[in-house]
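Practice problem. Given the sequence and the SMILES for zinc ion, write out the predicted structure.
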Amino acid sequence: MYNAKAYAAASATSRLAPYTIPRRDPTAHDVQIDILFCGICHSDLHHVRDEFASLMPTIYPIVPGHEIVGRVIKVGPAVTKFKPGDHVAVGCMVDSDGTCPSCQAGLEQFCPNMILTFNSPDKHLGGVTYGGYSESIVVDERFVLRVPANLDPAGAAPLQCAGITTYSPMRRWGVTQGKKVGVVGLGGLGHMGVKFAKAFGAHVVVFTTSPGKQEDALRLGADEAVVSRHADEMQKHIGSFDFILDTISADHDINAYINLLRLDGNLTLVGAPAKPLAVAAFGLLFGRRSLSGSLIGGIAETQEMLDFCGEHGITADVEVIKIQDINEAYERMLRSDVKYRFVIDMASLKA
Ligand SMILES: [Zn+2]
Ligand SMILES: [Zn+2]
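Answer key:
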């Protein structure tokens, strides 16, 4: 066991502050990683403030962070996929049982025994797992990903959550050349959705409540940007979409979007509004449309996504911060004052 510098919150009302955590010495199949960058996901903030208490109560102190990019510094004797010096990433999961039907299908995110990168039981050291707001992490090689060398490491960090969360449902629902795809919301998830849909060859329409974001949507590669409050603009797109990715985590009217789907069109939710959404059945009946959810992606698909990003030069648009500015970054994230993801430069932790 060794000590690592980290940032932790001591309670639901505490600010994140410097803290020292134990990390295990790498066992046979483990990879020890020096963390270079860690993205800030909205769910970090939800967990820190115990806002998922009914589903996953937070155990304090909590060290969040599941958009990790780093460099391998040590490997266990049985590790075959990685060697010291490799550029690697770790996302939302660090372990699973490897034997259940979901694991067998490469869908570790649905394994009943899946271990999240932070705030999950730590079978090695007891207590809970600690995430990426830390100088290093030790992870079983099965959950370590390879980062293509041409990708900027800071911009690649958010691919582990925001990236795979948007890539996976688009693959599942067949977003390809010639399809018409909507992306609802232009934040951390939405801006990745635009980049992927465009790279898959789709005609991409962004829906936003802020007229100020229209120009940015086009810059990111969208073909059209619609202000969702303008009913006449929405009306023009009725019955025309093959697929809509809804990234909104606030309460909103999804019926307006379901009605934009064509025959057999699908709307997938990747945001998680706290309040249940009202769904008008007729919107689904007429046109045999479907409404789905999606949760990150399996390890093999996450690697596929990273390789795709390498081939197409795709990274997140990020604002790099020092870890000392983390609490201010949380406040700005709440105001959507970031284009489009904060990423912590972990070198600042050593300062
Ligand atoms: Zn996340
Ligand atoms: Zn499993």
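Check your answer against the key. The longest helix spans residues 299-312.
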